[in-house]
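Recap from last week: sequence in, structure out.
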Amino acid sequence: AIMFADIMLPLASLGIGFEIREGGPVVDEPIRSMEQIRGLPRIAVKEAVPAVMEAISLVRGELNGRVPLIGFSGAPLTLACYLVDGRPSREFSETRSFMFREPHAWDELMTRLTDMVVEYLTEQAAAGVQAVQLFDSWVGGLGPSDMERFVLPYTRRIFDAIAHLGLPRINFGTNTHGFLELMAAPDCEVVGVDWRVPLDEAWRRIGPDRGIQGNLDPAVLFGPPDLIKARVKDVMDRAGGRPGHIFNLGHGVLPGTPLDSLKLMVDEVHAS
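Predicted structure tokens:
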């Protein structure tokens, strides 16, 4: 079970003001300088978003051991994209420009976001989650060398810092087929993959010692039942019955997805 909480919520611990509008989050004052970053306050995450921790405890109690509860956090790069661009974007050109133009400021911002994510996931574990996922929606907008320089050190730091929690750790990103090996570089148990690479190829590239999560295209669920069944079977066939496969969509459920299609997908997975 996953209790959804918008990835922007813990940014309240850095004093970031934002609104969730149609199309996504809009930040009151986008980050564009070192001075802004150094001026960010630091509030304990538990104090900034107490409702998230309370909700985790309530959901864990209601589940009563039937299924594990998964917690998650937006990754530093994805959070930085919203903070610097100020709103959703196809290219996040302001963020990428800032990254190259102000590398020291970028490292400062990513360090602060990394510390916040570590605290956020640690507090979720204390509240009762039984696995954690780092969710990097926009990392695929970078090339491999830039991902390795500007993102990977912070992803590694997060997974290393939460290793002592003893929970399964999932590293998930989209459009990452160009650098799957880098997504598998941090110390984590599971790597998530989207639909842009066949599951068996992805597993070969990340290594047999890792679990893999994925990877049905969520748009397939708008297709007819026979197509959904065939595509689910293809993913399962590529997994080949190997241990460590978590069937999932390659990204989130798209708005307007028919509920019957989701049910059919789940039933087909269980029947495989």
